[in-house]
Amino acid sequence: MRITFGKYLTKLATKNKKIVLLTGDLGHGVFEELAKTVGERYINAGVAEHNMSTVAAGMAYTGMMSWIYSAAPFVTIKVLEEVRNDITYHNANVKIVGLGGGFDYGMLGPSHHVLQDISMLMSLPNIKIYAPAVAEDMIPIMDRMVKHSGPDYLRLTKAENIPINFPAFKAVRNLAKGNKITVIVLGSIIKDVVAGILPVLKLNKIDLWVVCEMPFKIEQKLIESINRTKNLCVIEEHVKTGGLGEFISHSVVSSRLSIKRFTHLFATGYKTHHYGYRDFYLKENGLDQDSIKKTVTKLI
User: Fold this and answer.
1) Where is the Transketolase-like pyrimidine-binding domain (predicted)?
2) Are the C-beta atoms of residues 257 and 220 closer than 8 Å to each other?
């Protein structure tokens, strides 16, 4: 996703002279062409994310469209005060791009993981949040961000091929039809979900949905799916509090939908305090392909 981001931002910045990128000393191998193309509108702010966020806000106040880029925890958790006070409260046109959502940074450990970003940002005013499912989502999402004259957050992860057809980008998309259970997935962990349940998908038992934008309005077809199956499962590489699961459960209650079973698979943290790659952390949290397969299969 980061390669697509760098290439497309270069294209956007070539046309729109108000676009400026500030990076927290990340993006080597990604932004060389951008730096060459836009000159002084590319700024390496160094490992100084607090300063970078406030500078980006100041530029936005003057009419620029500021994009800030760093590891996801460093432009969300680390700088939450600046994001709140300088960006979202002022509805400033700042685009926050966080690399390595969820457990994506693997062996670098908890300091580089981000499991609370969406919940924190959802509590702030004016901001839109994007969690692409696949690399092909990047261009339509970035087009939306450019059109939105206000703060946005883009949660980037490693992109992988997924062996099912994806419809054109929407905030919420239906990927497979089924009548036994409605499964709603946040962003790129859809690749692990599909890999786990692919054989079952072909049996038309799982109504599979992916969410890539928050907050969002639950569309009628999703409401019909929940009413039909009355069996709802939400999966996200994020903590329970303030994420997709709570958003969906609140929407279900407020819409007075009747369901018989609600299951929520989410990140629970670091049980063994050991280090490992992303797959290790997913397994530890019951979010790996095998665990998802077992859970969803039991729910059908």
Assistant:
1) 1-164
2) no
